[in-house]
Amino acid sequence: MAGASQSTVSFVTGFGHRLYSDDFLHHLDACFGDGDFYENQTHPNKVERFLEGALAFEEGAFDGALVWDTLQFLTPQLLQIVVERLHRIVRPGSYLLAFFHSEEKMEAIPTYSFRISDHRTIALVERGRRRPAQFFNNRGLEKLFQDFQSVKFFLTRDHLREVIVRR
């Protein structure tokens, strides 16, 4: 959900999987970027346009999702809708991988392009900085993904909370 890199495409397709890629932040900017980014996320017509452009998939369409760091830029109301949509479009037993910045004192946090190098390494390339809509602790993430089967957290050395969610 943060665009694709050649290394990630090669890694995933090297295992025989198909890959669908889209830049979620691009959709956010296109739908909510004119004026107050976060206030615009409460406008029903803009929210509908965003959901149709970014998450209009059939139920159970995906075996997993690389969500990356995009969810932290959604207001609570839109975030709940997006997580419900993700729950619907991934198959039972599948996994989501998401990252949330853990440094709560920063006004603007880095956004990244994630590149899977190998089975042990994900390289992060900074794309810029944004103000997050909110910060998440472990309890907040458990609540966010409460309809999923399990949620696991890992704190990375880059001050990111890596979250693996099983549907």
Question: What is the tally of beta strands?
Answer: 6
What fraction of residues sit in β-strands?
A: 25-35%
CATH architecture: 3-Layer(aba) Sandwich
What is the subunit organization of this protein? single chain
The CATH top-level class label: Alpha Beta
Biggest sheet architecture:
4 strands, mixed
Q: Kindly report the CATH topology.
A: Rossmann fold
User: What general outline do the C-alpha atoms trace?
Assistant: globular
Please supply descriptive tags for the structure shown above.
four-stranded mixed β-sheet, single chain, globular, Rossmann fold, 167 residues, two-stranded antiparallel sheet, alpha+beta
Task: Provide structural commentary.
The chain contains six helices and six strands. It is an alpha+beta fold and 167 residues long. It has one domain: Rossmann fold (3-Layer(aba) Sandwich). Strand 1, helix 5 and strand 2 form a beta-alpha-beta unit. The longest helix has 14 residues. It is globular, with a radius of gyration of 15 Å.
In short:
The protein is of the alpha+beta class and 167 residues long. The chain has a single domain, classed as 3-Layer(aba) Sandwich (Rossmann fold). It has six helices and six strands.
